[in-house]
Amino acid sequence: MPFLIIAALVIAFVFWNLGRRSAPGGFGRKPGKCRWEATGNDTVSLGEYRCRTCKVTAYAKGGRPPQECKRGLGGSL
């Protein structure tokens, strides 16, 4: 009986860890790499970029696109 409990805990930990590693893309999938393109709607200090892969709009400063995917971020204040 203790062997079954330990085996169930190990299996649960493995699935939990897999889900955490790929949270934005869903269970068992790795998220795709974003391909950012400038939209031209820049402000004084921020540039607007849109991802061709996941269709998310993000802002970045310094004239360079964002470094990471913004798909998992919420949109409310």
Descriptive terms for the model:
three-stranded antiparallel beta sheet, 1 helix, 77 residues, alpha+beta, single chain, 3 strands
Summarize the structure.
The chain is an alpha+beta fold and 77 residues long.
Radius of gyration: 19 Å
**Residue-averaged pLDDT:** 78
Strand order in space, largest sheet: 1-2-3
| Proportion of helical residues | 25-40%
Count of helical stretches: 1
Structural class: alpha+beta
β content, as a range? 15-25%
The helix/strand order is HEEE
Distance between the first and last residues' Cα = 49 Å
What does the main sheet amount to? 3 strands, antiparallel
The number of strands is 3
Q: List the uncertain runs.
A: none
Query: What global shape is seen?
Result: rod-shaped
Protein architecture, described:
The model has no long low-confidence stretch (mean pLDDT 78). The chain has a three-stranded antiparallel β-sheet, with no helix packed on it. By secondary structure, the protein is of the alpha+beta class. It has one helix spanning 2-21; strands spanning 36-38, 47-51, 57-60.
Walk me through the topology:
Layout: H1 2-21, E1 36-38, E2 47-51, E3 57-60
Antiparallel strand pairs: 1-2, 2-3
